[in-house]
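Researcher: First entry.
Model:
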Amino acid sequence: MALIAIAADKGSPGVTTAAVALAAVWPRRVLLAEADPAGGDLVYRSAAAHGGPLNPNTGMLSIAATARRGLVPDQLWDHVQPLSGGLEVLVGLGIAEQAAGLAGLWPTLGHAFASLADSPNAPADVIADCGRASGDTPAVELFPHAALVLLVSRTEPEALARVRDRAAALSTKLHGGPRGAATLATPLIGVLLIADPSSSGKLVNQVNDMLVHAQTGARVVGSIADDPAGADQLAGRKRGRLDKSLLIRSARKVTADLHQQYGAAWTVPAQGPHAGAGR
């Protein structure tokens, strides 16, 4: 099982960029799911593999009717569209009002996302962009099914204080109370910093110490470069060598570290030509 849910405490400070960047360099076949109840961004900023726009009606919106009759993990692929470059995505809702159509279905989706890695036909990990992680968003119903919940945070003091408190609240909600950082509770709760690469190493240690001292049960898993130019390249707004960008280079390090630490528990091997396609 490898569902990785990515969220932020307030707003979405780089959640979508981080999710796309990690999915783009993921070492196995991966499905990027836009699971933000407030609506997705990819349909507005990314081109489909055929060169035209993504279909906003194929994705989370179309999967609602299927899920109400029960959802087999392989059925997810019926609602997936490939981006230019090969990344396979489940396009998010267009507007927040459409989230009503998914009412009561989030646990079903979470189970399907988590079980896709065990599919005998087309296994894949799922990276879910969940937007905000506040207590009133239905996307948190995906979290109990995840192997890892990643909270994205920038490095301003107020942002770090919020992610500390959100991590502690999630630990209580998901694990029944605060736990030590070494406790391998499921899902694991990690923090992903959006940081200046020149100071990220020191910040990772400082924030990790803060999380441990506060007994949040979370730990910093790494940092993604605060790289506006790379983010524009990733979104297709700017040309350039994306693979050489600070954003993608830092995302590669995060994915390598995640798989080194937790990959043994994510047991599905890469599947043929799909693994890493278009990355």
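Researcher: Second entry.
Model:
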Amino acid sequence: MRIDLHCHSTASDGTDTPAELMRAAAGAGLDVVALTDHDTTRGHAEALAALPEGLTLVTGAELSCRIDGVSLHLLAYLFDPEEPALLAERELVRDDRVPRAHAMIAKLNALGAPVTWEQVERIAAGGTVGRPHIASALVELGVVPDVSDAFTPEWLADGGRAHVDKHETDPLEAIRLVKSAGGVTVLAHPAAAKRGHTVPPDAIAAMAAAGLDGLEADHTEHDRVTRTRLRGLAADLDLLVTGSSDYHGTRKTVALGENTTDPEVYGEIIRRATGAFPVPGTGGA
């Protein structure tokens, strides 16, 4: 089985619609794909309606969190999307994204980058607005050559010249909320240094003690040495190890299935989940 547990659609900051993503996943030879848009489950219905035969969908979201001043992303799988407490927290995070984007645009303008809200809104195309949309605006204007070059201290990285904080959930609380909604949690790209400060091992240990299920070790932003280190940390903390593409369509160069999750780990994620279950495709539109 080829299993990719971290992908984005136009419901947040990907460039494929949920339906297009499902067809692309099948075309890439995946057996299982997770839709994990930022702080939203809005793309799930479209993905389910278009799910091709032979492809299984894992529903999820990537939750924005912060601990000890460090931003991090928590992958949440197979939770009940209507559980009230988790739904309210996701809405709170999403609602804060628009004023934050306006504030970052103002900072960019002051730095000489003529980004406009209308431009960012057009790029987002109705999805949950985030830094990748602003990064794409910088690419369109020729300020940076590609999206990854916008996520540096010079521009949008945590603590960067144009960065603005947003509401982010304490990850220990996020883990509790996801667990209460029957879901499973995996810390996304914990050592992706280009994004800013990385999550220290003691914070990961605290999350493990709070019920974190796993670490995303195999990720395009982790080199071989980093992946080995994270696997060792996961073993020490009795955490699952996943691998994923973090696919965003044309917004990033990574391909679907570039990193995958071991089928036994996937089976354990399913075993632990009680809020929702993977959906096998029967031939969508």
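Model: Note on the second entry: The mean pLDDT is 94.
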